[in-house]
Write the structure tokens for this entry.
Amino acid sequence: MYFKGINFYGDRGLVLDFGNETSKSISQEVNETFLNISNLNLPSLNIIPSFNKIVVIFENSKIRDQNKDKISMKMKETNSQTNKKVTKTWGIPACYNENFALDIKIIQELHQITKEEVINLHSSVRYYTYYIGFMPGFPYLGDVPSQLITPRLATPRVKIPARSIGIAKNHTCIYPKVSPGGWNIIGQIPFDIFDLQSSYPSLFLPGDEVKFYSVSLSEFEKIRKYNFSLNELIKEYSS
Amino acid sequence: MNSIIITRAGTHSTIQDFGRFQYQHLGVSPSGAMDQRIIIELQKIIPNHQNQFIEFAYVGPSIKVKEGSIKICVGGNCNMSIQKNNSSQLECQPYKSINLFEGDELIIHNTIDSVYGYIAFEHGLGLEPCLNSYSTDTKAGIGSINRPLKNEDAFHISRDVSSWNLISIPKPDLEKVTNFKVYPGPQLQYFSDNTLQSFISSVFTITNQSDRMGIRLKGESPISSESHDILSEGILPGSIQVPSDGQPIVLMRDIPCTGGYPKIAILNEADISRISQLPPETKITFDLQTIY
């Protein structure tokens, strides 16, 4: 148990504190708690998990104060309970072709490994979705194998192509759409992971597991042409 | 059918409502009207606004009725006039309903000693919501219109005006506040007692690098903190974060969903609306209150 307590955040927010460290097991507790709090159906405006905090926002202090105890009680309850796993595991096709792998050489040179080794290492791990943030649908995945840990680009790129796969420090990510950013780009996936037309717009949720598998450029283009909807993607690529 | 066309977009004109909620854990900002007090007032005059308000900053839009007629109301402190079809010009006031007929053009010149103004339209603007809200987040490209308004944008309002009766309310007392009582931020412990003392005794100036995402302040001297880099965590509008240059930023409605700078303090909800109306160069001060 990492849960430390609940603090106020201004006149209408609460912060559930899970300490100042970061690890997969802390994030698992954070994300399980996130689901538990969400399932309480409180009149909250937003519930935002991150590495070791959950921020819960209400419309005003009155509603916040009326609901604080419900969260405290739930936290005590879950202390003595094991949570059911409701998250998904994804197998996501990744094309590491040189057209997309804009910064793979930086990682190769830093760690003195071949391109194939980078690809094999990156696609060997089942990543954990720490949280979604930075931009709509952007998953913070980790941890990458130690031989791939690479600092952010010294000068961020002005325009990273949509669906790019990046590595920064011990995390890997997918850019849902074109964006400026400082992650080392090593490949691209063939479909969109954030869809405003869907009532639940993000393919990934905090706590989901993601494993990449390498596909050729021709396979990539074949999948790209399908133009999957989010619902089709869930059927096709989650287990 | 009634239709209108934007003949001059104005500056920073977007569609806004009371905000987009329940999606911040997916990286989607709450957005919504910068000054929520004004759209709450406009509801009294145009109850059937369909949550489709136009927000503008400094220079307002001009809107011409192409077909049919519409009923609107403007909120905020602004100069405006109506260019009638017969080329006469009418003066008009905020917080009074306005009937516009084919060929009429509403010209909102500018906001006076404030930043944001709003237009409510009876029966809305014929838009579809995006993630349960009409608000535009231009940075994320989300919204019933996912960009600022531009010249020639046209809207079709299928329902006709319910009544031509003119309705007005007394001009609301949106007093200008420059001293803000703030709550301690989640990283208060990152700041020394001396720093906190200087935070509440200094005068900060609102800079022109301010927008719907945040208001950048310039202090008399930079605010130092134990660390300017924390692990990203959920943030809410009104938070005052201190990046490495020591110049605080008040985060506003198009907030980044998570932030990695320590937050020294946070404004209450009503003060977010108040501070949004202060133009660049306004001097402000903070008082730290410790009772919740």
Q: What stands out?
A: The interface with chain A takes residues 19, 21-28, 30, 130-131, 140-142, 183, 185-186, 231-236, 238-239, 256-258, 266-269, 292 of chain B (CB under 8 Å). The radius of gyration of chain B is 20 Å.
